[in-house]
Amino acid sequence: MNNLSGKIKNIKNSEYISEVSIELENNSIFNVFLVETPQTASYLNLGQKINLLFKETEVIISKNLMPEISVQNQLKAEIIKIKSGKILSKIVLKSAVGKIKSLLSSTLLQQMNFAESQEVLILVKANEIMLSE
After folding, report:
1. Which pLDDT value is given to residue 92?
2. How high is the mean pLDDT of the chain?
3. How far apart are CA 118 and CA 110, in angstroms?
4. How far apart are CA 83 and CA 89, in angstroms?
5. Which segments within the chain are labelled E, that is strand?
6. Contact call for residues 74 and 120 (beta carbons, < 8 A)
7. What is the pTM of this model?
8. Beta strand 73-83 pairing with 60-62
9. Is 127 exposed, middle or buried (0-12, 13-18, 19+ CB in 10 A)?
10. Residue 44: pLDDT above 90?
């Protein structure tokens, strides 16, 4: 599980759903969609320190550093380790906010021709992130 730290910078809510903006350590912003509101979740307060949790399988990696894509949460990173398996492969990335791990099919790893020291873009959909105090 990937774990990033930040502070809640903005909360927009409507009925039972919220869009929460989290400022990470390098001042980049990640957005998270929650089926919670400040009225139903006591941790949803401006300035609250919070952890963002997301699975390795939810990390998308792009060779294109400036894609026109509808995923808000993006970080530039460097591939520092690749561990290939028969079916799944693990990629460890170094970003401005720390290490992030990605898990993808070994077939796709070969097709994409990822390599250590390569600069890539990490993308994580807003609805795939959980928050934790």
Report:
1. 98
2. 95
3. 14
4. 6
5. 2-14, 17-24, 29-34, 49-54, 60-62, 73-83, 88-95, 98-105, 119-124, 130-132
6. no
7. 0.91
8. unpaired
9. exposed
10. yes
